TrEMBL record:
Keywords: Signal. This is DnrO protein. Residues 1-23 form the signal peptide.
Length: 162
């Protein structure tokens, strides 16, 4: 019994070692490292800039018209629906295989996750957290990319009903 256990341990260690070695080979063969510095020099095309500006503006308008009480979940779902098509259109713009496009794609996926929460979360606080996720992704976009006239959103939005 002890010999079988020792054999299993050796086999597991060999498998783990070969997996780590192949993973190291994959990582080291990446010709273009994904760095934030490289993305900062990337200027998104006009469609992306217009879409980002429109999302920012719709959040600002929605926050200023914030109704009180139980309609908050409905308002966030409507805002999410309005932003969903914009994010999908901007994701379609990420066709190049460069560092900037990969960073933009990652941020847009974060926004899409937040939008999904805004639309479908069962609890109103979860919907508000979805909005916060979108706001944070938009603000990160502004620090990573060249976007003339970009202004960060206030992350201290009211995210709780309490």
């Amino acid at each position: 019994m002890r010999q079988t256990l020792d054999t299993l341990v050796v086999v597991a260690l060999l498998a783990l070692g070969s997996t780590a070695a192949s993973a190291a080979t994959l990582v080291s063969s990446n010709p273009a490292p994904l760095t934030a510095e490289a993305a900062r020099n990337w200027r998104p095309d006009e469609r992306v800039r217009v879409g980002i500006d429109a999302m920012r503006e719709s959040i600002v308008v929605s926050a200023s018209l914030r109704p009180q009480g139980a309609t908050d979940a409905v308002r966030l779902a409507q805002l999410g629906r309005a932003m969903e098509a914009r994010v999908a259109g901007m994701i379609a713009c990420c066709t190049q295989d460069d560092v900037g496009s990969r960073h933009l794609y990652a941020l847009l996926v974060e926004m899409a996750d937040g939008i999904a929460l805004m639309q479908r979360a069962a609890h109103p606080d979860a919907r508000r957290m979805g909005l916060l996720k979108v706001v944070q992704a938009l603000n990160l976009y502004g620090t990573m990319f060249t976007h003339p006239g970009w202004r960060a959103l206030d992350e201290t939005l009211e995210v709780s009903a309490q």
